[in-house]
Design goal:
CATH architecture of one domain: 3-Layer(aba) Sandwich
Oligomer: single chain
Number of strands: 11
Strand content: 25-35%
CATH superfamily of one domain: Mog1/PsbP, alpha/beta/alpha sandwich
Largest sheet: 7 strands, antiparallel
CATH class of one domain: Alpha Beta
Number of helices: 5
Helix content: 25-40%
Distance between the termini: 151 Å
């Protein structure tokens, strides 16, 4: 009996061994490759961070375009130091070199023809001087539509002569059309008084010799007046209702 069981026991042991090897091989095939998974996770994480970084950074093209636009705006606001200023003389257009000058007194700039000088005059006015010609420029502090430019110009003109006459502003350069314009005569001088809201609210008094009126080039310069950043049209600025005698 013992001899009969030995072959059977041996066969059972062999089967058990074969089954055990097969199970190990199967489990080995099912185990994930940790090295490959770690690599894939690292690549995925790096990709996610890269995408987030790119999304959070502004486009360089937009930034450059924005800078360019700002520079272009600044260039448009900057006035050249010299221009060829045109005006009519004897029915013909004349162009002369004019230089940009700035009034720190009232906060404006304008182009001044050669031979003319811009000087500050107190209180709150500037003057253009050339030989015997004289131009007083007073920027006005205007609130709403309360300024009567016609009355203002008339009062100043009549302070020169009671025979002051109102002129047709249609004969003035384009930006001054619609202004109040009076002319008065005193001895050998002709005085033009212009009250206008364009190009800026101001009162202009032009005094020239009767035999040498230079109205056209003067008006050409007046047309170029622009306020600057330093303009201080506040309570200290010229009051339109200020006494006429103080400006003569």
């Amino acid at each position: 009996m013992q001899l009969a069981w030995k072959p059977l026991i041996t066969a059972i042991m062999v089967i058990a061994l074969v089954s055990g090897c097969g199970t190990k091989e199967t489990n080995g095939g099912k185990q994930p490759n940790s090295s490959n998974n770690d690599t894939n996770q690292t690549e995925t994480t790096q990709s996610d961070h890269t995408g987030q970084s790119e999304a959070s950074q502004p486009s360089s093209g937009v930034s450059e375009n924005g800078t360019t636009s700002a520079e272009e705006n600044n260039q448009q606001e900057t006035r050249p130091s010299e221009i060829q200023l045109p005006y009519m003389a004897d029915g013909k257009e004349v162009k002369e070199t004019a230089s940009l000058k700035t009034s720190d007194n009232q906060g404006f700039s304008l182009y001044v023809l050669k031979g003319w000088n811009l000087d500050a005059e107190e209180p709150h006015s500037d003057v253009l001087l050339h030989d015997n010609s004289f131009v007083r420029i007073r920027l006005l502090h205007v609130e709403g539509n309360g300024t009567d430019y016609g009355k203002l110009a008339e009062e100043h003109a009549q302070a020169v002569s009671s025979d002051a006459v109102r002129q047709d502003s249609a004969n003035l350069p384009e930006s001054l059309k619609g202004a109040a314009w009076y002319t008065a005569h005193s001895e050998n001088m002709t005085v033009h008084v212009i009250g206008t809201s364009s190009p800026v609210p101001m009162l202009v008094i032009i005094q020239t010799p009767k035999d040498k009126e230079e109205l056209a080039p003067i008006l050409a310069m007046i047309e170029t007046i622009r306020k600057t950043d330093s303009a201080k049209l506040d309570k200290e600025a010229a009051d339109p209702n200020e006494s006429v005698s103080s400006s003569n």
